[in-house]
Amino acid sequence: MAPITEVEGRRVALSNLDKVLYPATGFTKGEVLHYYATVADVLLPHLRDRPLSFLRYPDGADGERFFVKNVPPGTPEWVTTAEVPRSAGAARMVVVQDLASLMWAANLVTEFHTPQWVVQAPGEADRLVFDLDPGAPATVVECCRVALWLRERLAADGISAWAKTSGSKGLHLVAAVRGASSERASKYAKGLAVEAEKAMPELVLHRMTRSLRPGKVFVDWSQNAARKTTAAPYTLRAQAVPTVSAPVTWEEVAGCEGADGLEFRAEDVMGRVREAGDLMGAVLDASGAAELP
User: Fold this and answer.
1) What DSSP line would sit under 185-197, residue for residue?
2) Phi/psi of residue 256, nearest 5 degrees
3) Radius of gyration over alpha carbons of the chain, in Å?
4) What is the pLDDT of residues 88-141, one digit of tens each?
5) Distance between CA 159 and CA 175 in Å, rounded?
6) Which conformational region is residue 189 in: left (phi greater than 0), alpha (psi within -120 to 50 degrees), or beta?
7) DSSP assignment letter at 236
8) Cβ neighbourhood burial of 268 (10 Å; 0-12, 13-18, 19+)
């Protein structure tokens, strides 16, 4: 029987704590749970009120991965759920609102992916996201060049952007917005991606065409669609090592000089949070949300 832990008055079953989930480093499930408990104060505000898609990898980073969007069987009754619209009809999804729910979800071994809207206003964008994905031999270094261009372009429209690593090869840009539908946000993001390609044709693509990808950065604007989700800040990723989608400063972006220059693992992020708190905390301040032009 899985050991039962009490978290904020809730009984949470935590299983297979010694199971190695990242074979390259020996990082265990117990360490995964410790990581999420440590960063909960900065992670939870980025999850709150957002229906979660779980990218599960219960057999470890080398095992099968699969998305779970509906409420999983066996979900405790005290975990918040919400009905959300989908093209095929309404669905019920998990909304992680507190530490107990976070630890229950983390025990499933999952990446946390969120839409750019909250359950109170589905399809109304409160986030604008750009996923910068490098095609080899391009790396995060080239992504940083594109991110800096996009930051300036967004600022020209009165929009402040923050950066985080994808936890894989690339970089994410996130901005707080208001007063726009997801469709409108997608159209605006696509327009900026097209502008970036025109400004840096040797470096940027706004289309996913595989044959064009080598050496360039794909600016994925499509994750602003209401049906799409993006890896949340501070989520662990199912990579060879326990990397995190970690918020970074613009100074770090500007100073990135190597392919591993912005790789942060769980132990790195726990230290960064202790020292600096949430480097992306400003995006949570609704008073700073900008209207799209």
Assistant:
1) HHHHHHHHHHHHH
2) -70, 125
3) 19
4) 778 899 999 999 999 999 999 999 999 999 999 998 999 999 999 999 999 999
5) 7
6) alpha
7) B
8) middle
